[in-house]
Design goal:
The chain has about 375 residues and is an all-alpha fold. Among the domains are: about 10-95, no CATH class; about 240-365, no CATH class. Helix content is about 70%, strand content about 0%. The chain has helices at about 5-20, 25-40, 50-60, 65-75, 85-90, 95-105, 110-120, 125-130, 140-145, 150-155, 165-175, 180-185, 195-205, 205-215, 220-235, 245-255, 265-270, 275-285, 290-295, 305-310, 315-330, 335-345, 350-365. The radius of gyration is 33 Å and the shape is rod-shaped. The protein starts with a helix and ends in a 6-residue tail after the last helix.
Amino acid sequence: MSSNPASTSESLLDELQTTLTHGTVARRVETLRRVTDLFLSGAVDFSDEQIALFDDVFQCLTHHIENSAKALLSTRLAPVDRAPPLTIRALAFDDAIEVAAPVLSQSTRLDDEALIETARNKSQAHLMAISTRKTLSGAVTDVLVLRGNDEVVHSTVNNPGAEFTERGFTRLVTRAERDDNLATCLGLRPNIPRHLYLKLLAKASATVRARLEAANPPLADEVSSAVREVTRMARTSPSAMTEETAIAHALVKSLYDDGRLDEDQVAAFAEAGKFDEANAAIAALASVSVSIAENMMVETRAEGVMILAKISGMSWPTVRALINMRDDLAGKERSDLEACKATYERLRPSTAQQVLRFHRMQQMATPAPAA
């Protein structure tokens, strides 16, 4: 028997209103259960008009029901693709996380606009629920990264279905500077922009780099090459000059101008782990620019250090201190010092000068960045 949807809606709402006005709490919960059962039994086949009818009914009930019953409703409706949309939205915006979490984490009825509004205005627990969704757009993760605490951010980055905008990745790289676990997870994201990946590695600890290599052995060479690339970029970029580096360079210049810069001073800088001072000092003694010395000092192997030291006429103990300093600051395994010593002793000053000329030519041939 067919019936008019409007009259059906009115009669059902009248019946519900009677239950809510005169019924006990148990009667209200039982009514909600029955209506939910009725909806779930035919949700796939219901028309949009019928779903709208259930939407009216559920909203009427949820205004007069306890959180425990609303939480159960949320749990039952969350996985249903054709769940009543207004009811889902109301549940998602509920302050009680036990009510909101099931739909926030699962319901496909919630669009980005609803998720973003929730993420901007609700609790960290609400953000955590959103972070576990099967898929997350960059627009949503932008808000999660901006507002979320460490737990929310970790959950979002670990979600394989999450997408990130470049702005989101940039914020994450900044947060990862103080969080090794986040840095590791972020470094394993396959779609992190190259320049941000380099920035991440530049700030990463040796522990993070080791974790990235261990988690994906084929990337070990990539991590090492990226570290070398970003170290060169960071060291040679004028914009990367920190106040501490500028002070270190000024100190070395003062020592050099006063005639007090010698091998002992270089060794003292190296043993104290003062890279900027040691690098500027050896550059001055070898009569090369700081940028050329920096490029040679951060090469994968120790030859660059030995060439600069040979040109400066330094003894092996000072060279050893420079190599150890470089290895320690890079967080890498110690170089084979016996092999390095043998190479250093065989290296002739004329050969070192030839290699240095090559480095100078290479730097001069490097094209300037496009405007």
